[in-house]
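Researcher: We're teaching a course module on how sequence relates to structure. For the next exercise, students receive a sequence and then see the predicted structure as tokens, so they can try to spot secondary structure elements on their own. Here is the exercise chain.
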Amino acid sequence: MQKAHLDMAKIKIGIVDDHNLFRKGLASILSQKPDIEVVLQASSGQELLDVLHAGKTPKPEIILLDIQMPDMDGIIATKHLKRGHPKIKIIMLTMHDEEKFVTNLINMGVNGYLLKDTEPDEVERALKEVAEGRSYFGPIALSVIQKRMSEPDLIQKRPSRPMVMTENFSPKELEVLKLICQEYTTAEIADRLCLSARTIEGYRNRLIKKTHSKNSAGIVAYAIENQLLD
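Model: And here is the predicted structure for the students to work with:
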């Protein structure tokens, strides 16, 4: 009984990449992690959608999805997943720091962004963060957000979002916001502020609502846009 319980607690993931060696290698590494179960592999976005439609394999909670693939790339696949399988969370994989994709992917509501040369331990950490309802964007993605938010052309073209005055944030909310922007995890913020992780999640959810964001990356973008960081 105990073993069955542990199996149920595993994070069920899918890996979609057209490079067989990379996909199978990553699947092999992650399958050795006690909290992760690889339930789906596909070589393109179209194959992924076909497998999900067939319903012959367990549906993954999270999909590690390559951006650049033949047949159907990760961008188009994400749009289909958001419409047809909105509960599946998505972490995008890429070989390069592709600035043109980062802000667009965040706006699409993806839950994470990782480079393919990321260490396995960081991939595991990203999966656990996303499985627990948070986002995982590494320093490269966050630096891209900051860079693009400061570009004059983008500032002029960017659609305005409802403004939230700083005084509408409590001091503790601003403190949590700044720690999120510094890439502290929920557990680290809780430890730093001597609060429970559940309390920090409450602050995070209120910040998402107040800033009209979809995830933590949106909170960071809002903080940069409204000059809330020191």
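Model: If you want an answer key for the exercise: The chain has two domains: 2-146, 159-225. Residues 1-7, 152-164 have pLDDT under 50 and may be disordered.
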